[in-house]
Amino acid sequence: MKIINVVGARPNFIKIAPIVAEMEKREDMEYLLVHTGQHYDFKMSQVFFQELEIPEPDIYLNIGSGSHTEQTAKIMIEFEKVLLKEKPDMVLVVGDVNSTMACCITAVKMDIPVAHVEAGLRSFDRTMPEEINRILTDSISDYLFTTEKSGEINLLKEGVSSNKIFFVGNVMIDSLLKNIEKAKKSDILDRLNIKKQEYVLATLHRPSNVDNKEGLSKIFEALEVIHKQIKIVYPVHPRTRKNIENFEMDKRFSFLKSLDVSSGNDNFLFIDSLGYLDFMMLMSQAKFILTDSGGIQEESTVLGVPCLTLRNNTERPETIDVGTNILVGTDNSKIIEESLKIINGDKKTGGIPSLWDGHAAKRIVDILIEKNKKGRD
Ligand code: UD1
Q: How far away, in angstroms, is 39 Cα from ligand 1 center?
């Protein structure tokens, strides 16, 4: 069985690592890794390959940044050439980024079955680019691997046949559990001169939060209040960095004085985006997390660290129902209120969602091999 695995953007690398490691163990499986190049900076891409021991991509499409249409179209054109040459039995895509959707459509148009890992998640907010990617990818994939119960419910409601849906758990958590001990050896706390439980870790990159000046200002107003109570460590995503510069946010918020690494004042550490191990270490020891990321909601739940999500919805409801996540929206008074509660000792505790046990990749590869055998018999 010959499979092409696709990655493009930062969260994809974390998800593909355990799948590729599992495929490596199987004799009856040949795989290739295609990197679209949607993310290309060392800190957004290569560092994850090194730290998660992902083999070098066999094929790099070198797509880079662009509008959604431009990026999607370029990926499709280049990926079609790969499929024509390699003729795989299946394409496997992960997550919900533009690379996921673009490669899924390309494969299906060429009559090649697609497996989608992390299927069925829905925020029910179609203004989110990822929601469109999820709906399109799921509606034409052949194997839908879900991470939580809501995934199956959503897919069934959309008319997907139940025999395409497989509840396998969460490959992002496979990576976390495999690497957490290694991550805890990171010296990032010393490098930043901070102590366990004495800081908040903040990340922001959703277009709805960072692409307009008013919205971003509101969030920074909240951070301005919070950083007077507790240190904030803020690794900045390239998209957000660009907007902070374009909107001249540093003129309005003195803690953003300089956009250099490790700048800001002592209580607001504005740093470059980090590699996987440093980031896991920072997450595991934080008093709490402020984020608009999808994956961080899941990782913080498994680490048992309170997470305040700066969004009005989440496609990952188990992180709220079972885990440590709370939706605080983007209204600064609510962000401040919930942050102060945790600072004053009132924090949400939680459990671990079902099958987030470190074995999702094994389940996925077992199913693919079994189905492929049945198909041939
Ligand atoms: C993408 C995904 C998002 C995911 C996020 C994780 C889509 C629609 N969005 O968002 O779901 O949560 O990745 O990080 O696929 N840039 C760099 N260097 C890089 C990559 C990007 O400087 O290596 C800058 C460029 O200015 C680019 C901007 O970041 O235009 C946005 O990159 P893009 O891949 O379009 O979307 P993300 O915001 O990273």
A: 6
Catalytically annotated residues:
205
Q: Which atom of ligand 1 is nearest to the CA of 100?
A: 15
Whole-number Å distance, alpha carbon 240 to ligand 1 midpoint, is: 10
Top-tier CATH class for 180-343:
alpha beta
- Residue with the smallest CA separation from ligand 1 atom 27 is 65
pLDDT in tens, 169-197: 999 999 999 999 999 999 999 999 999 99
Q: Partners of 80 in the beta sheet?
A: none
What fold is seen in the domain 2-169+356-376?
A: Rossmann fold (3.40.50)
List the chain domain ranges.
Answer: 2-169+356-376, 180-343
pLDDT in tens, 193-211: 999 999 999 999 999 999 9
CA distance 91 to 72: 17
Return the SS3 of 320: helix
Determine if the pTM surpasses 0.90: yes
With a 6 Å cutoff on the Cβ, whether 215 touches ligand 1 is no
CB distance 245 to 259 below 8 Å: yes
